[in-house]
Design goal:
It is a single chain. This protein has helices at residues 2-37, 61-70, 72-77, 104-111, 114-123, 159-171, 204-209, 212-220; strands at residues 42-43, 50-58, 80-88, 94-101, 125-140, 148-155, 179-186, 192-199, 228-235. By secondary structure, the chain is α+β, with helices and mostly antiparallel strands. It has an 8-stranded antiparallel barrel. The N and C termini lie far apart (71 Å). 18% of the residues are buried. Mean pLDDT is 86; it is low at 7-22 and 24-33.
């Protein structure tokens, strides 16, 4: 019995040591990211944290927008505040909204309600509706003046690994041919990354897709899916 007790004590000590080592490793990684962050025009401090992105096709954008505006008070009562509204630059039937969320469970209750489904049908929403529950992770601290607004969403093995690689690459000046205004991470799927960014070159994405160096960087950063990309126009709220 004494030996069993001694082994249990030893095992417990090993677990404590392993836990402490993991915590130290995590803190060191956070310090590294903050050091890299300081050399870039990004911040981890922002006015809102949890976000909801809803995107879909509509029969007529103006009709949909008028209906969306009428429901603003209902959304606010459920802790959903509109931050940005977008329309597809190429596909004018594409609509996307970025909102801030005060309470996820309360907001999910509204998003999954018959009330919203009915209002979307009346507004002329067509086909599938994409819903992304996100946390804002990076925000651009400078004025973005590039002319073409774009949305990109993709999956990564580990968000922290990807963010560190992204910030390190941006800090070297190699990624400054585009301005990333927002980076968000999935709430339910933590490997989901969504970016809003601006460029001046209409063919920027196509050029990056054929750039072997860029592709290798994405693989090294842990990107594991082909990105979903849309060109957008920001509209009045």
């Amino acid at each position: 019995m004494r030996k069993v007790g001694q082994w249990l004590v030893l095992f417990g000590l090993l677990l404590v040591v392993a836990s402490c080592a993991e915590e130290v490793k995590k803190e060191e990684a956070e310090v590294v990211v903050e050091d890299v962050l300081s050399s870039t025009p990004f911040t981890h401090d922002f006015d809102y944290d949890t976000c909801l992105i809803i995107s879909h096709k509509v029969d007529n954008y103006d009709v949909w927008k008028a209906s969306y505006d009428l429901s603003e008070e209902i959304r606010l009562n459920h802790g959903i505040k509109t931050i940005k509204v977008y329309q597809g630059k190429v596909d004018k039937k594409y609509a996307m909204v970025l909102t801030s969320i005060e309470n996820v469970s309360q907001a999910k209750g509204y998003v999954t309600s018959d009330m919203l489904e009915n209002s979307m049908q009346i507004a002329g929403v067509e086909g599938d509706i994409e819903i992304q529950w996100m946390r804002q992770k990076l925000e651009y601290t400078e004025n973005a003046d590039d002319s073409i607004l774009m949305y990109m969403s993709f999956s990564v093995i580990d968000y922290e690994r990807w963010e560190e690689a992204f910030l390190d690459d941006y800090g070297t000046g190699e990624s400054k041919d585009f301005e990333v205004t927002h980076v968000l991470q999935g709430v339910d799927d933590e490997g989901l990354v969504t970016m809003l960014f601006q460029v001046n070159d209409h063919d920027y994405v196509q050029k990056m897709e054929s750039n072997n160096s860029f592709q290798m960087k994405m693989l090294a950063a842990g990107v594991v899916s082909y990105p979903t990309i849309y060109k957008l126009d920001e509209r009045e709220i």
